[in-house]
């Protein structure tokens, strides 16, 4: 089995052009001096480069090279052109321009670092190493506090060449240059060194470094760092056949992954709100322009005189329509506010009712855990911890449902119906549950036949996760979940989820299947229908589909989703 760390690749692609050298200061001083000699096109290229406007600096530096008189000017412009090309991902063009910098000038070591980094991106590790090692001969020209990036990249080259002893040497050099307070660089360096050991199957050296990186990342604010250190620990524990611990880390990884997804979704909503605000402002300007035009017409009408009365009547009619429209808008806003208040009251009811019990349970379990720790009862500690994890997962699931429900009710849940193949969508959701259910002795079987449906993919995934969570939650010990999909008729496709769990009592089953009108004022929490099922019914209905439940106590439950299909 190939051993590899996930965070190694992330750092590789995000750590672009890390090192800054003393020659860079000479570069900036000389550039400023040339600008003082009224070199207008040179100054324009340099100004765009300083402001990180690389598209413009790329164009102007190309033009300025045609008018360069001195070697220093040519070297600086080739450097600007090369860096701009690199930033635009034109690596070969960047290599060509950086190579044009003279070897006898002021920027030789800067040239070596840039060429080495380009070859690393092009995966030419031999050439990259050649230039990095040439740079190392004159590393005294490099700021010590900045040289860690070069050592890091040399280590990467040696890993790709499977020369782990050399990689270890340079990653340790990188360690010596990291300030104690630079947690981000420290975690990444530990991950790099851990990879060197792990790829050589030196687990005793690698695993403590993975654990140290994970512990440091937990106290750091970078969500991606938390996510990938947790995933690395999950892989390590899986390879050690410690599946329960591996599942715990995978759950934590999923939590951070969801946090990133929520963060990106909030960003998308913010961007959409900005666009709406701009559109609204443009509409207000258009309305204002229209108002000015009407005033001019009214003034001309009064001067004419004969049409004054007609204009006056028209103005009254316009005023009346505006007033009527305003009253209609106020009425609509009032109705929207009532719905919003009912939604808020309902969500408060859910949070206060459904969170009180798990929070009290967690507090009680923590007290028990403390007693078990005092008594050094390891078996009881494990049982209490597993119980706390189960309650925490359930609470997290509830909070996700509250978030999705509130977004849907306030029309902020992005809903984009397109044509999708059903089988890969269901397979993607099932893949996330494979490891989780193995730890619980639950087997998932699938018989997925393809169908083309028109639906919103993300909302359909929310429904499937809720239904699978319920199937796992109400499974009495070991059991089986069978998921099937396919075409039911020319106009309908289906997804079926059948489990061997405890089943649903008849009275509650009737209430679940009777959920037709899901408006806030019709929801009665006393009927015992959870928010998750209400959310599922709402999203399936929004996808123009139906959701039905068949169940028998003690024998299990079968859930069927019908969706509009598109003939292939």
Overall description:
The chain has 568 residues and is of the alpha+beta class. Among the domains are: 20-115; 307-409, Orthogonal Bundle (Helix Hairpins), CATH 1.10.287; 417-564, Heat Shock Protein 90 (2-Layer Sandwich), CATH 3.30.565.10. It is 68% helix and 9% strand. It is built from 20 helices and seven strands. The strands form two sheets. The chain has a five-stranded mixed sheet with strand order 2-4-5-7-6. Strands 1-3 form a two-stranded antiparallel ribbon. The two termini are 40 Å apart. Residues 4-21 have low confidence and may be disordered.
Main sheet? 5 strands, mixed
What is the second-level CATH architecture of one domain? 2-Layer Sandwich
| Low-confidence runs | 4-21
Oligomeric composition of the shown chains: single chain
Q: What is the CATH homologous superfamily assignment of one domain? A: Histidine kinase-like ATPase, C-terminal domain
Q: What general form does the structure show?
A: flat
Q: What is the percent of helical residues?
A: 55-70%
């Amino acid at each position: 089995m190939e051993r590899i760390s996930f965070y190694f690749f992330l750092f590789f692609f995000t750590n672009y052009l890390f090192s800054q050298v003393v020659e860079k200061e000479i570069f900036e001083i000389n550039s400023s001096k040339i600008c003082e000699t009224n070199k207008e096109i040179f100054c324009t290229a340099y100004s765009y480069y300083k402001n990180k406007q690389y598209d413009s600096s790329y164009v102007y530096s190309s033009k300025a090279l045609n008018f360069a008189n001195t070697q220093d000017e040519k070297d600086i412009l080739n450097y600007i052109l090369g860096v701009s090309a690199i930033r635009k991902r034109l690596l070969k063009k960047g290599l060509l321009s950086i190579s044009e910098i003279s070897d006898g000038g002021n920027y030789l070591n800067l040239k070596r670092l840039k060429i080495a980094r380009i070859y690393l991106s092009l995966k030419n590790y031999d050439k990259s190493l050649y230039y990095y090692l040439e740079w190392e001969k004159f590393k005294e020209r490099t700021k010590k506090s900045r040289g860690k990036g070069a050592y890091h990249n040399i280590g990467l080259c040696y890993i790709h060449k499977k020369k782990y002893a050399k990689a270890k040497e340079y990653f340790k050099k990188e360690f010596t240059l990291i300030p104690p307070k630079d947690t981000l660089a420290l975690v990444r360096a530990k991950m790099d060194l851990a990879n060197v050991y792990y790829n050589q199957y030196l687990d005793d050296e690698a695993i403590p470094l993975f654990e140290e990186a994970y512990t440091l990342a937990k106290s750091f604010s970078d969500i991606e760092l938390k996510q990938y250190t947790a995933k690395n620990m999950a892989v390590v524990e899986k390879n050690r056949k410690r599946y329960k611990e591996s599942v715990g880390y995978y759950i934590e990884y999923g939590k951070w992954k969801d946090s990133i997804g929520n963060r990106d979704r909030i960003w998308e909503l913010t961007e959409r709100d900005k666009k709406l605000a701009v559109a609204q402002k443009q509409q207000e300007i258009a309305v204002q322009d229209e108002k000015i035009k009407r005033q001019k017409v009214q003034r001309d009408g009064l001067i004419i005189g004969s049409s004054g009365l007609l204009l006056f009547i028209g103005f009254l009619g316009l005023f009346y329509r505006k007033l009527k429209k305003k009253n209609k808008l106020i009425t609509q806003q009032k109705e929207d506010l009532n719905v919003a208040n009912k939604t808020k009251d309902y969500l408060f009811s859910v949070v206060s009712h459904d969170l009180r019990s798990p929070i009290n349970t967690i507090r009680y379990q923590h007290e028990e855990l403390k007693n078990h720790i005092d008594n050094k009862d390891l078996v009881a500690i494990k049982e209490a911890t597993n119980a706390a994890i189960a309650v925490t997962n359930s609470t997290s699931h509830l909070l996700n449902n509250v978030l999705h429900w509130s977004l849907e009710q306030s029309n902020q849940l992005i809903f984009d119906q397109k044509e999708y193949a059903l089988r890969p969508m269901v397979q993607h959701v099932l893949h996330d549950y494979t490891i989780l259910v193995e730890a619980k002795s639950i087997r998932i079987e699938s018989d997925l036949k393809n169908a083309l449906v028109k639906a919103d993919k993300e909302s359909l995934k929310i429904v499937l996760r809720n239904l699978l969570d319920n199937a796992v939650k109400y499974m009495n010990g070991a059991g089986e979940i069978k998921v099937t999909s396919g075409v039911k008729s020319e106009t309908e496709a289906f997804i079926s989820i059948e489990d061997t769990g405890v089943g649903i009592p008849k009275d509650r089953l009737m209430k679940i299947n009777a959920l037709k009108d899901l408006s806030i004022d019709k929801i009665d929490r006393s009927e015992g229908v959870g928010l998750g099922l209400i959310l599922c019914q709402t999203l399936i209905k929004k996808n123009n589909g139906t959701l039905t439940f068949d169940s028998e106590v003690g024998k299990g439950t079968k859930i069927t989703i019908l969706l509009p299909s598109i003939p292939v």
